[in-house]
Input
Amino acid sequence: MKTNSTNSQSAKSTAGGALRPPRIPIGNWLGVLPFFVFSGLFLIGPVLILAYRSLQGPEGGLTLDNYGQLATNTVLSSYGMSIKISLTTAILGGLIGFLIAWVVSMGGLPPRVRLLTTTFSGVAANFAGVPLATAYIFTLGRVGLITALFKWLGVDLYRTGFSLYSFLGLTLVYLYFQIPLMALTILPALDGLKREWREAAENLGASPFQYWWQVALPVLTPSILGTMILLFGSAFGAHATAYALTGGLFDLATLLIGRQISGDVLHNPGLGYAVAMGMVLIMAFLIFFVYSPLQRRSERWLK
Amino acid sequence: MTTTPASAASATVTVQHPVTRKRLSSWLIFGVVSLYFLIPLGATFYWSLRGTKDVLGFEAYRKLFADTNFLPAFSQSIVNAIAAIFLSLLIVVPTAYWVTLRLPKLRSIVEFIALLPFVIPAVVLVFGIILLYSRPPLLWTATYNSSRVVLICIYVALSFPYMFRSVDNGLRAIDVRALTEAAQSLGANWPTILLQVIFPNLRTALLSGALLTFAIVIGELTIALYMAQHTLGPYMSDLTRSKVYEPSAMAIVAFAITWAAMGLIQLVTGGQAQTTAGH
Output
C-alpha cells in the first residue's frame, strides 16, 4: 500500500514538474555531457581516425585498396592464428567452464565450494597479462616446474615438439582466463532454471537426460552461445598476455598491430590501419549482431 | 499423486546410489579443474622462494622491492588507477542517474557506448590514440606527463562498461525518484542531491565498480607500453626478460593484489564477482 501511494505520487509530481533540474534547457544534457565528450575523445574519435586513414590511398583520396591488401600472407596468417586460438579457447573454455558451473551449482557439492569457485574465478578471469604469462613460463617454459617434472619422468617436452610459445601453449595459457570467465557468466543462467520445469518434466515421465536435452539445454543455449562469443572476443582482442609470453613476435593479429605501431613492419601505413579496422569490424559484428540478440533471447526465459 | 510410505522408502533407497556417484564425479571434475588452476600458481610460488641458491626463502621478494624501478612504477600505476576511478565515478554516476530519471531515451545510446571497450581491442585503441593525438592540431602526447593524462583518460573510458553496469544495478535497487523528491522538498539543490543523497546510497555499487577498475588498470600493459609510460605493466614485462627469480615474486604479488580486489568485491556485494573482458 505504502509503496503504491509513493509511486503514484511521484508519477504525479513528475507530470507537475516538481522534479526540475537546472532551468536552462541545456541543463538537461549537462549530466550526460561529460560521458559523451569522454567517449568521443577516447573511444570513438580514435576509431574514426583509423577508419578514415584506412580508406586513404598513399596519395590521398578515398580508396578500398588497403582493404584489398589484407589478403597478403602476413596479414592472413596472423588473422588465421588469432581466429584459430580464439575459436579453440572459446569452445574448450566454454565447455569446461560450463561443466564447472554445473558441478558447483547442482553437482551436490557443499555451498562453500561454490563461493570459493566464484571468488577464485573472479580472480583468475582478471589475472591476465604479464603475471599470467610469467606464471606459465615458470610452469611450462623450458625450465618450468612441470617441464622439469616430465624430464624427471623421462620425457623431454620440448623435444616432443611442445612449446609454450606455440598455438598449443598459448591455448593452455588463454584457458586460464577463459574457463573462469565462462563459469562466472553462465552460473546465473543455471540458477535461472526453474525448479518447476524439472518437476513438470519428471511428472510427465521424462528421464534426467530427456529433461536436460529437451528442456534445460534449449533454454540455456542462447546464454551458452552468447558467452562463447564473449570468450572469442576476449581471446581475439588479447594482446598483453601474448606479448609478455612471446616478446610480441608471435603470429597474432594483435601482435602484428603492435609491431606496426612500433615500426611499420608492413611497409605500408594504410594497410596497418586496415588491419586494425578489420579487428574492430569483426568484433563489432560479433558483439552487435550475434552477442546482443542472443543476450536478449536468453533474458526472455531467464528472468 | 499419493505414494505409500513403502514406495517412498524404496524410492529413496534406489535414488541414494546414483546421488553418491554423482557427488563423487562432481568432486572428481572439480578436483581436476582445480589442479589446472593451482599448478601454475604453485610452480610460480615455488620459483619465487628460490631467490637464494639451495635455500628456500623470500630473497626474490626482497630484491623485487629493493629494485629502484619497482616502487616508482608501482606508485605511478596506483595513482593512475585512483585518478581514473574518481574521474570515472564523476562521469558515470550523473550519467546513469540522468538516464534513469530524466532522459530514458538516451539509455540505449549510453549502453551502446558502454559496450565499445569490448568491441575495440586495446592495441587498436592505442593505435588510434597515437594517430589522433601525436600531431597537431591535437598534440596531446608531446610530453611524458601529458601522455600520462591521456592514458588516465583512456582508462576512464575503458572503465565505463563495468562502472555503468555497477551503478545502474545500484540505481535499480533504490527508489531514485522518491529519494530525489525527498531531498528536493527539503530544499536541496542538484549537486547536493547527487553528492549527499545518491552517492552514499550507491556505496556498494560504486565500491565494486571502483575495485574492478582498479584490477584492470593496475597492471595494464598494452596501452601504457605504446604510450611509453613507466607503469607497472611495462615494468613487469621488462622484468620477465631481464631477471630470473624476481618475475615469479612479481607474479605472486600481482595475484595477491587481484585477489584482494576481488575478495573485497565479494565482501561488499555479498554475491557474484564480476569479470572484465579484455586481456
About this structure: The longest helix of chain B spans residues 5-48.
